[in-house]
Design a protein that fits this description.
Blueprint lengths: L7 E5 L4 H13 L4 E3 L10 H13 L5 E6 L3 H7 L7 E3 L3 H9 L5 E5 L5 H13 L6 H12 L3
Parallel strand pairs: 1-2, 1-3, 3-5, 4-5
Helix pairs in contact: 1-5, 2-3, 4-5
């Protein structure tokens, strides 16, 4: 069980809307407040609009963590990683999710709504929430991220 239950911001495009709703329900049951940045239906939208809302909010420190979903997760991960201090990880398996936290301190989890099913998505979110960052030598590597900004 995760100790720090700070609110999470979540966003998706139309392709992942049903999965986003299931994840929101899981987070609520898990005791985590969720800020929903949209979209709010399966009507076609531009994924970038919602990726920008979530990644910007994490980048500016309004939220410690966020979750983004689109059809494959590829577009959302590309958008999110354009923002300073965002470490968005597109993950489709439990090992990758755990390592994204342990070694990379990911602060946005990206999932593909057309790639994974509901049960796996919930397991990935749970693992992401419960896995701590190991720090140490991994922090030194993350410090290099900040040196890249503006290059």
């Amino acid at each position: 069980m995760v100790e720090n239950k700070t609110p999470i911001i979540i966003g998706c495009d139309h392709a992942a809307y049903p999965l986003k709703e299931k994840i929101k329900e899981f987070l609520s049951d898990y005791g985590i407040d969720v800020e929903d940045a949209g979209t709010f239906s399966e009507e076609s939208v531009n994924y970038t609009d919602f990726g920008i809302k979530v990644a910007s909010s994490v980048s500016k420190g309004y939220f410690e963590k966020g979750i983004l979903l689109c059809g494959t997760g590829l577009g959302m991960s590309m958008v999110a990683n354009r923002f300073s201090h965002v470490r968005a990880a597109l993950c489709n398996d439990v090992f990758s999710v755990a390592m994204s936290r342990k070694h990379n301190d990911s602060n946005i989890l990206v999932l593909g709504g057309r790639v994974i099913g509901e049960a796996l998505a919930i397991e990935l979110v749970k693992t992401w929430l419960e896995t701590p960052f190991e720090g140490g030598r991994h922090q030194k590597r993350l410090d290099n991220f900040d040196r890249i900004e503006g290059v």
